From TrEMBL:
Keywords: Calcium, Hydrolase, Magnesium, Manganese, Metal-binding, Protein phosphatase, Repeat. GO terms for molecular function: calcium ion binding; iron ion binding; manganese ion binding; protein serine/threonine phosphatase activity. It comes from the Eukaryota. This is Serine/threonine-protein phosphatase with EF-hands. Residues 481-516, 564-599, 604-639 form the EF-hand domain. The gene is PPEF1. Belongs to the PPP phosphatase family. The keyword Calcium applies. The keyword Manganese applies. Its cofactor is Mn(2+); Mg(2+). It comes from Chelonoidis abingdonii (Abingdon island giant tortoise).
Amino acid sequence: MGCGTSVTGSRAKKSERAIKAAILIQRWYRCYMARLKMRRQYALSIFQSIEYAEEQAQLQLSSFFTFMLDHFTHLNETDTGKDKKSLIWKFHDFNTTGSDVQLLEYERMIEIPDSYHGPQLSFPLTVADTNSLLHAFKDQQHLHARYVLQLLHETKKLLKQMPNIIHLSTSYSKEITICGDLHGKLDDLLLIFYKNGLPSEENPYLFNGDFVDRGENSIEILIILFAFLLVYPNHLHLNRGNHEDHIVNLRYGFTKEVMKKYRSHGKKFLNLLQDVYSWLPLATVIDSKVLIVHGGISDTTDLDFLNSFKRNKHMCLLHDGVNSGPLLEAPYLESSVCMPSMPSELTAKEWKQVVDILWSDPKNQNGCTPNKVRGGGCYFGPDVTARLLKRYNLKMLIRSHECKQEGYEISHDGQVITIFSASNYYEDGSNRGAYLKLSPDLIPRFVQYQVSKWTHKQTLHQRVSVVEWSALKSLREKLYSRRSELIAAFRQYDPNYTGKISATEWASAMESVLHLDLPWRTLRSRLVQLAPDGSVEYLSCFNDLEIEPPIKEVQPALVETLYRYRTDLEIIFNIIDKDHSGLISIEEFRQTWKLFNSHLKIDIDDESIDNLARSIDFNKDGNIDFNEFLEAFHVVNKFENK
């Protein structure tokens, strides 16, 4: 008996040790996963904050176009005597598309060579045509320009027949699939069709805006969606997003993609797309209970009014704020540039209704406040949501517009759903995509996915590290672009030039200059060196950054400024470079920079700009290769290659 008791006690002790070991392992794993989750979350926060700052910069650039209306300097003497409107159209190069008759004549003039082996479309389109497009794009083929123009023309004719707000029912198909932002990610669209089936009468879809920009296959996504729309006009539906705007497309890549893929006819595509964008429906209501818009709502959103005006007048939303400034405060272009003359109060009210549903975001706090992070629309709280749903006897609001780590998010006590369908949006592994399925019970069912090329071969730790590194790299570049301002802000807390300030002071200085609303105290160990006493050695955040290759003739302050505004400059120069050769004259460079300089009140003298222009004209032919110019002002980590 004694021996048996001893054995039993020994087993009990071993079992107890095993349980303790299991608990320790479990605790370690939970802590490990929590740290990874935190790193993914702050990486996503960095990406998102920088994205919204860029959207603010886009509004600033639109304000610059306004400035040019009043202060345009003639780029050549032949423009003398033209009115301001014609000058701004010269600068924009956004000409009207002409009549439908002219467009059809232009289409007929485009010959399809015998060497073309891509898909051949005949109108009206059939299911066979959509299948042909899908197979061609999987094989990285392009659709011929003539077919693209015909497709856009037919799409415009169909969209013009639709109301501002589409009403759908689940009673026939029993289920509707709702997709969020795709942003040129063709692989995500193909994966959705693979998992969920192609659009059809039995399998209807709603795509909730932002089809284009950022990704490399925006034009292919538009072609596929428009083709299915023509085949199934009652079973595939499209809402307009804030990126269905040609001014936004200038910054985020779609304009460049179209001109690269369809060089000879790209301008005609872009001009026609302005019309197509303007005719996209603004909202959708399912079973009279679920409202679907791209961005959100405000405390003044009026669905009845939203459904009453001609939506195509609001072609370029970044310009349409009549007497109301840009999306928040700065003045905008004259309404005559983008829309017909109308009573200003009515036009401004219409414009605000559209901007609010395309640009707004939900917040957890009650109330409705201007969305100063993006620079457009508003932040709307749970009380704003509840009031609108009650007013129209609705149950739920579905929107997109924001990247979510899991592809979707539920907020406002289950009354607001955000759905985002572009996986790997910021970086491979940064987020999942998702779509939702809505049946007559109106209970959303989410399907998540992530397009994987090589990330599936990496461990979770490796994937998070890659995303985190990419986010921090983008943030460091942002710091470099504001180097002078940051140093000045740091030294307000360091009058004795010790090179050290407290963590709180460092965080305050960072936020006062960058306005990114990031957890700076959490991030400080990843961005700067810390002294033994816990203080921040603030100059260390610039130690490993440099512009390569350096242009020795250019002052450091000018280098920093050019880097900060390089995207804005690229947009302006691409507009000036009408033949998209990548070359602009030195005189165009000087004149445009002087305008930009005057508008932004940047303290850089004309001589410095002239020196820069001469220094980057390496072959002295009087032209500047702007692509090389942009590459010259590219911030890199000094130790990356090593």
